[in-house]
Predict the structure of FAD-binding PCMH-type domain-containing protein.
Amino acid sequence: MSKILRVLVSLLFLQASASWADSDSVYDSFLQCLNTKTKSSNTTQLASIVYAQNNPSYTPILQAYIRNSRFNRTSTPKPLLVVTPLTESHVQASVLCAKLAGVQLKIRSGGHDYEGISYWSSQTFIVLDMFNLRSITVNIEDNSVWAQAGATLGELYYRIWEKSKVHAFPAGICQLVGVGGHISGGGYGNLLRKYGLAVDNVLDAQIVNANGELLDRKSMGEDLFWAIKGGGGGSFGVIISYKLKLVSVPEVVTIFRVEKTLEEDATALVLRWQDVAPTTDDGLFMRLLLQPVSSKVKKGEKTIRASVLAEFLGNADQLVKLLGEEFPELGLKKENCTEMSWIESVLWWANFDIGTSPEALLDRMPNDANFLKRKSDYVQTPISKDGLEWLWKKMIELGKTGLVFNPYGGEMSRIAPSETPFPHRAGNLFKIQYSVNWEDAGEDLEKNYTTESKRLFSYMTPFVSKNPRSAFLNYRDLDIGASSNGAPTYEEGKVYGVKYFNDNFDRLVKVKTAVDPENFFYNEQSIPILPSKE
Ligand SMILES: Cc1cc2nc3c(=O)[nH]c(=O)nc-3n(C[C@H](O)[C@H](O)[C@H](O)COP(=O)(O)OP(=O)(O)OC[C@H]3O[C@@H](n4cnc5c(N)ncnc54)[C@H](O)[C@@H]3O)c2cc1C
């Protein structure tokens, strides 16, 4: 494109950006730019991947992967365009054209960001929606799988299972989560005590950088490769795909769910859980859910229900014996246990009925969302009995927000904190997720529940990590710090950055400054660049 034409396109974009109503001109200029950058003669195909606001498909496309109804309102800021690339070259061109236009590019894979920052912004923006790029190529011979960013975890697990019943991948529990955002942010699931996080099992990757170049591990270099294994999506480029190392699972695994309320001495169970869950056999993952519920014993009163949901890489006899010795407070019996294949356990964790066909993992179930708020914390010393009893009172007082304790230890403790950007390794007993879901819209309801989760977070202060009070990036929480307007400054980024990345924050900033010095890729909690010396 000649210099004059480039200036004209930029001007047209800028003009269009100022006027949201003028979506025709934005669309035309973007399309023209895509045409030029892809050197494509197929204008019809290009036209079919760009959705302007006046296109009847714009809203369904935008809403299809909104997984948190808090950000699905008329007042939620909308993108100028939604671009749905079919090829790597479409991604490359989209980066260059958004850059030329001076508009922010928000990247969306599965849309599960808890604060919705893949599809809204306070800035003028375009959504690059990766759902068409979702191929999965499993290679059992070399124990690996290439998964494109737009694939869901359910699709990944299904394709592995199609090829082998004794291979798996250690990633998240919800089958609808997208590969792109999930792995960029660390990615944990019920195999983490045995095999670590998703990012501990990444072998290679493809990324489109801010210059529109398509790079793999070799061409991007080890610093950038390190950064995209947990440093968060939307900071370094557009992930096209990850090459992942498969792990082995036995033909039979065992799952169980055991629940106790305070009347059944849930306190003793939780006390003991804190010792056992992070130290037991690496093949055992016992998640603990704590929820205020109505008491069945004391009518009209509330109690706390402690539910242990677990998966063991072995059979029921071995598990009952192990927990009989280590965790008698649980009272696990063989009849509480169900033996199944690994893929059946994936379905069980995803709340499907036992016996559901694995094909259910291929269902993307668009637009199936509640209102959600999440926060996170790390616990490094067990909470005392007095502490727990005080906590129960506070949870009952607040009424709705639950806590999910996810045990660490095992492989998580053997990986150095600097090995990947995700730093929360040895010394962390478990991670807490604060979890509140509601079904009805309304500002008062939202204020009520988000305030409730903040209050519980505040009550937890004495029990959790300090200096910094660490947090898990995949449980995105804008309350812990965010940019005030547009790209975060270094000082703004440091506030949330040290919580998510601890001592790895500065290395991430260095990588970011080297690979994207103009800070083209940014969001409310992206990695900032170093302040310029002028
Ligand atoms: C119901 C539910 C269950 C969950 N369960 C788990 C769990 O078990 N374990 C766990 O670790 N996390 C879990 N999460 C959190 C989830 O892993 C993160 O929200 C993750 O970032 C979602 O990825 P996504 O692609 O679906 O989201 P998106 O909203 O599409 O993206 C999230 C972030 O990554 C960026 N991004 C997305 N795609 C790309 C790309 N291709 N290149 C560069 N940047 C990109 C986005 O811009 C955004 O900043 C869960 C979330 C939900 C809502």
Notes: DSSP finds 18 helices and 18 strands in the chain. The longest strand covers residues 284-294. Residues 136-248 form a domain with the Uridine Diphospho-n-acetylenolpyruvylglucosamine Reductase; domain 3 fold (CATH 3.30.465.10).
